[in-house]
Design goal:
- The structure holds two protein chains of two kinds.
- Chain A is mainly α.
- Chain A contains eleven helices and no strands.
- Among the domains of chain A are: 77 residues, Up-down Bundle (Four Helix Bundle (Hemerythrin (Met), subunit A)), CATH 1.20.120.1200; 46 residues, no CATH class.
- In chain A, helix 1 packs antiparallel against helix 2 and helix 2 packs antiparallel against helix 3.
- Chain A starts with a helix and ends in a 5-residue tail after the last helix.
- Chain B folds into two domains: 70 residues; 260 residues, no CATH class.
- In chain B, a hairpin with a 3-residue loop joins strand 1 and strand 2.
- The N and C termini of chain B lie far apart (47 Å).
- In chain B, 44% of the residues are buried.
- The chains are: A mainly alpha, B mainly alpha.
- At the A-B interface, helix 2, helix 3 and helix 7 of A face helix 4, helix 5 and helix 12 of B.
Chain lengths: 242, 345
C-alpha cells in the first residue's frame, strides 16, 4: 500500500515538474524543475528495485550534468521578451509537429505487443542471491562488453572534440610552469647574512633611503599621494645590499 | 507492544526515533566543532580563543546560536525570494540526510542499504546546489562569482573522489558501508589493523584532500574567499539563513570525516584487538577517528594559504585524476594477479 502511494506521489511530482521544465518563464527555474524531475525518476527506480540505477542517475545527471546546465544557463544573459516574440508566428508549425508526433505515438502504442519471452526475461534480470549492482556488472562486463566499450569510445571522441573546438593557445597568456616554480631554491633569491648582535645593518653597508620630505600644509590633499609615493620608493630602495 | 513496531506506522516511528538519536548528538557535535575550531586555531596562532562565556568558553556556541536567532533575516529586494530561502535549507538538509547510511556500530545504521557508498557520494555531490542557488538567487556579483567557482571546483574534485571510492570497492567487493568496515576487521600478524589506509595510502591522502575541496574548506575555500569576494556565496545572508549555511558546512565536515573513517580507518573497529582497546565501545572509536580527522581539517586551515584558482583546477584535473586512475588500475591488476579479488572472479 505504501509502495503504491509512494509511486503515485513520485509520478505526479515527476509529471508536474517535467511540465514545468517547458512552461517555466525563467530558464534557471526550468533547470531546477529538471533536477526535481531527475530526483523523482530516481525514486521510481528505487521503487522498481533498481537501486544502482537510481543512485547513478542522481550522481551523473543531478550531480554533474545538471550542475553544468545550471552553470551555463546562469551565465547566459537571456532576454525573456525576445524569446516570447515569435510565439504567435511559430504556433501553427509547433501544433503541426505535435499533432504528427501524437498520431505516431497512438499508432505505435496501439499496436504494442510484448514479446512472449519478454516477461520471463524481465523477471530473471536480477538473479536471486546477488545484489542489483553485481548483476548489472556481470551483464555489462561480459555479454555486452563491446557495446559498453563502444559507448566509452563515443564519449571519448565527444570529449576530444570539445577540447579541440575550445582549446586555443593564446600567445599572450602566460601560464605558470609548476616545474620552474618547484625548481627554485632558496639560494637563488635569498642571501643569509650573519649579523653580529647589536651591529645592525649599517656595518654591512646597507643604507636606508632618506625619508621623504614632509609635504607642506597648503598641499594637504597632494600630501597624501606624496606619502604613498615615498612609501613605494622605500620598498624599491631597501634591497640595495652593499 | 512489540507487534506495533512491525506495522508500517510503528516502523516510521522507530526510524524517526533513530534519526533523532543520531541527529541530536550530531548537532551538538557541530556546535562544539565550531568552538573546537576557534580554540585550535587560537592555539596555532598563540592566542586563547573564546574563553569568556561559560567555563573555558564552553557555552560560546550556544551564545552564538542565540545571537543568530535574535537577528533579523534580511532578504535583498532584488533577490529571488523562494530560491534565496531554499538554498540554506538545502545545504543543511543534505548535510543531515547523508547520515542515514553511516554505520556507527555493527548493524547500527538507520538505512543499511546495498548502495550506501553511492548514496553518500550522490548526496555529497548535491551539496553544490545549495551554493549555486544561493549565489544566483542573491542577485549580486560576489555571491555569483563564489557560486561559479564552487560549481567548477566541486565537479572537478568529485571525479578523483569517485575513483578513490572505486579503488576501495575493488578491495571490498560491496557497496554496503557495513560490509566495507567489516572487510577491514582483521589484523595482520595479530596486531597491525588491516585498515584500507595502509595498502591504499596515496588514495587515502587524495580522498582527504578532495574532501577538503568538496566541503569548501581552506586551502580550497575559494567559493567564500573572504579576501577576494567578501564572503562568497553567502554575502547576502544574515541571521538563521546564514546559520544554516554555517551548520551545513560543519556538518559536512563531520560527514566527510565519518566517510573517510569508514572507508579507510576501519569505522567503529578498535585499532588493536586486545584488552584496553576493546573496552571502548564501537561508536566511541568512530567518534575518536572522526575527531582526529576534524583536527587535521582545522590544522590544515591554520597552516596552508589559500590555493589560487588555476592551481586548484590543475591539482584536481592534472594531478589527482591521472594519479587516482593509475592507482585504480594498479590495485585492480595486483588484486587480479594474486587472486585477492573478492567474489573470486
Amino acid at each position: 500500500m505504501i509502495t503504491a502511494i509512494a509511486f503515485y506521489v513520485f509520478t505526479a511530482i515527476l509529471l508536474v515538474s517535467a511540465a514545468m521544465v517547458v512552461t517555466a518563464r525563467n530558464p534557471v527555474h526550468s533547470v531546477l524543475f529538471l533536477i526535481l524531475a531527475f530526483f523523482n525518476a530516481a525514486a521510481l527506480f528505487l521503487i522498481a528495485g533498481a537501486e544502482f540505477l537510481a543512485m547513478i542517475l542522481v550522481i551523473v545527471y543531478v550531480g554533474a550534468v545538471a550542475v553544468l546546465f545550471l552553470f551555463v544557463v546562469m551565465m547566459l544573459d537571456v532576454d525573456f521578451v525576445a524569446m516570447r516574440e515569435g510565439f504567435q508566428r511559430y504556433l501553427p508549425v509547433g501544433l503541426a509537429v505535435v499533432t504528427v508526433l501524437f498520431a505516431e505515438l497512438v499508432f505505435v502504442l496501439g499496436g504494442w505487443k510484448f514479446a512472449p519471452a519478454a516477461m520471463s526475461a524481465k523477471l530473471s534480470s536480477t538473479p536471486a542471491g546477488i545484489s542489483n549492482t553485481a548483476a548489472i556488472g556481470r551483464l555489462l562486463y561480459t555479454d555486452y562488453i563491446f557495446l559498453f566499450q563502444a559507448a566509452g569510445l563515443v564519449l571519448l571522441v565527444a570529449m576530444i572534440g570539445a577540447i579541440v573546438l575550445t582549446l586555443r593557445d593564446r600567445k599572450t597568456s602566460r601560464h605558470q610552469v609548476i616545474r620552474h616554480q618547484n625548481e627554485r631554491q632558496p639560494g637563488d633569491t635569498l642571501e643569509m647574512l650573519d649579523v653580529a648582535l647589536g651591529a645592525g645593518i649599517k656595518t654591512l653597508g646597507i643604507y636606508r633611503p632618506k625619508p621623504a620630505p614632509v609635504p607642506e600644509l597648503e598641499h594637504a590633499h597632494e600630501g597624501h599621494g606624496g606619502g604613498h609615493a615615498a612609501g613605494h620608493g622605500d620598498a624599491h630602495h631597501t634591497p640595495e645590499v652593499r | 507492544m512489540l507487534e506495533f513496531f512491525h506495522t508500517p506506522l510503528g516502523h516510521v516511528i522507530v526510524v524517526f526515533a533513530q534519526a533523532l538519536a543520531l541527529l541530536v548528538p550530531l548537532l551538538i557535535g557541530v556546535a562544539y566543532l565550531t568552538l573546537a575550531e576557534r580554540k585550535v586555531l587560537a592555539a596555532i596562532q598563540l592566542r586563547r580563543g573564546p574563553n569568556v562565556v561559560g567555563p573555558f568558553g564552553l557555552l560560546q556556541p550556544f551564545a552564538d546560536a542565540l545571537k543568530m536567532l535574535m537577528k533579523e533575516t534580511i532578504i535583498p529586494s532584488g533577490a529571488n525570494r523562494g530560491l534565496f530561502l531554499l538554498a540554506p535549507m538545502l545545504t543543511f538538509g543534505l548535510a543531515m540526510i547523508a547520515w542515514a547510511v553511516i554505520p556507527v556500530n555493527d548493524g547500527w545504521a538507520i538505512a543499511d542499504i546495498n548502495v550506501g557508498v553511492l548514496y553518500l557520494f550522490a548526496i555529497s555531490s548535491l551539496g553544490v546546489y545549495g551554493v549555486i542557488i544561493a549565489g544566483w538567487a542573491s542577485n549580486s556579483k560576489y555571491p555569483f562569482m563564489g557560486a561559479m567557482r564552487s560549481a567548477a571546483q566541486m565537479v572537478s574534485y568529485e571525479v578523483s573522489m569517485g575513483f578513490v571510492i572505486v579503488t576501495v570497492l575493488v578491495c571490498v567487493g560491496s557497496l554496503n558501508l557495513t560490509d566495507i568496515v567489516q572487510s577491514q576487521n582483521h589484523y595482520w600478524f595479530g596486531f597491525i589493523p588491516a585498515w584500507h589506509f595502509i595498502p591504499l595510502f596515496p588514495m587515502f591522502i587524495i580522498f582527504f584532500i578532495s574532501a577538503l575541496a568538496e566541503t569548501n574548506r581552506s586551502p580550497f575555500d575559494l567559493p567564500e574567499g573572504e579576501s577576494e569576494i567578501v564572503a562568497g556565496f553567502f554575502v547576502e545572508y544574515s541571521s538563521m539563513s546564514f546559520a544554516l549555511f554555517f551548520l551545513g558546512e560543519y556538518a559536512n565536515m563531520i560527514l566527510m570525516s565519518a566517510m573517510t573513517a569508514s572507508l579507510f580507518l576501519g569505522g567503529w573497529l578498535p585499532p588493536f584487538p586486545f584488552a584496553p582497546f576493546t573496552w571502548l565501545p564501537g561508536p566511541l572509536w568512530l567518534i575518536v577517528k572522526i575527531c582526529f580527522l576534524l583536527f587535521v581539517f582545522i590544522w590544515v586551515r591554520g597552516t596552508f594559504p589559500r590555493y589560487r584558482y588555476d592551481q586548484l583546477m590543475r591539482l584536481g584535473w592534472k594531478v589527482f585524476l591521472p594519479f587516482s586512475l593509475f592507482w585504480l588500475v594498479l590495485t585492480a591488476g595486483v588484486m587480479m594477479a594474486f587472486g585477492w579479488l573478492p567474489h573470486g572472479v
